[in-house]
Amino acid sequence: MNIWKQVDANKQRSIFLVFIFVLVVIGIGWLFSNYYGNPAILYFAVALALTQSLVGYYGGDSIILSSSGAQLVTKRSDLPVLWNAVENMSIASGLPMPKVYVINDPAPNAFATGRDPKHASIAATTGLLQVLDKNELEGVVAHEMSHVGNYDIRLMTIITVLVSVIAILSDIFVRSQIFGFGRKRDNNSEGGGLMAILSIVALVLAPIVGTIIQLAISRKREFLADADGALLTGYPAGLAGALEKISKFSKPLERANTATAHLYISNPLGGGNPEEKEPGFLAKTFSTHPPIKERIRLLRQMS
Fold first, then answer.
1. What would the pLDDT profile of 176-202 be if each residue is shown by its tens digit?
2. Which of 19, 103, 261, 268 is a Cys-bridge partner for 288, taking CB atoms 3.0 to 4.6 Å apart?
């Protein structure tokens, strides 16, 4: 895909996802409102949809960095290797220098976030800096810079915030059903029973569908960022070697969570092994990343 077409597609998808999110949250609010007989719930859902869309766009990266325990790195810090790798890839790509963060965690991993190349951040774990050599680290940074340049960061950051909100709303409804809070008195009627069933089905499916969209988009983006990153460094073996080392570390990140897992270069919830057999259909469907073995194979072919 032409790089500019890819960038335009990501911008359009970001707008589309925000639009769908607003409709879904308002729809959930309407179900809540009818089920509990309280129109104020619908008004709250409308306000929540609009405010969280803005939060996801303008402040999603700050939320993600804070929840990951990332600490800002400066040029005069004691991590010149990381700073220099990001600076080199910024110059090579022609993109603005992103903010650089480090996460104090032995699990080797990294991610990029932000709303555009002028407001981007790249974070790497201390474990990544310990196990990779210079070429491998630049391969990982180039991968993340590709996410920045392709506007993947905007798409994935917005998805993180919006899917989390939908999951929270669903959880609130399920808990209210368990404890029996606020139910309408006429819910024993045929109409009330039907509304209850529709509400539960919709609210259970909403986060599942959102997660599947999140994972599918993430997997596709990882393949593209691998290829673009390899072209940026001119040394695909560097990124391939980095992925091999990362995949051998099975311990998850201490502050990893399912909401942000798709942002990382490798699944932060638990590493795999490039020598393992090909995962099945269900494993692929519900994985935040494409099979590491397949990614390494494609990079070796580029070499």
1. 666 555 555 455 555 556 666 666 666
2. 261
pTM: 0.80
Q: Given 3-state DSSP classes, what are the helix, strand and coil percentages for the chain, each rounded to the nearest 5?
A: 70, 5, 25
Strand order of the β-sheet with 99-103 is 70-73, 99-103, 120-125, 110-114
Six token digits for residue 182: 């606020």
- Cα–Cα distance measured from residue 222 to residue 175, given in angstroms and rounded to the nearest whole number: 36
- As annotated, the active-site residues are 144
Phi, then psi, of 97 in degrees rounded to 5: -65, 115
CA dist., res. 136 & res. 242, Å (int): 5
142-to-47, 161, 163, 164, 209 alpha-carbon distances in Å: 39, 25, 27, 28, 31
Task: Provide the H-helix boundaries in 123-235.
Answer: 126-131, 134-149, 152-179, 190-233
In whole angstroms, give the CA distance from residue 105 to residue 121: 18
φ/ψ (deg, to 5) at 38: -135, 100
- Residue 168 identity: I
Torsion angle, alpha carbons of 47, 8, 287, 243, to 10: -130
Torsion of CA 228, 232, 236, 237, to 10 degrees: -140
Q: What letters, b where the CB count within 10 A reaches 16 and e where it falls short, cover 176-210?
A: eeeeeeeeeeeeeeeebeebbeebbebbeebbeeb
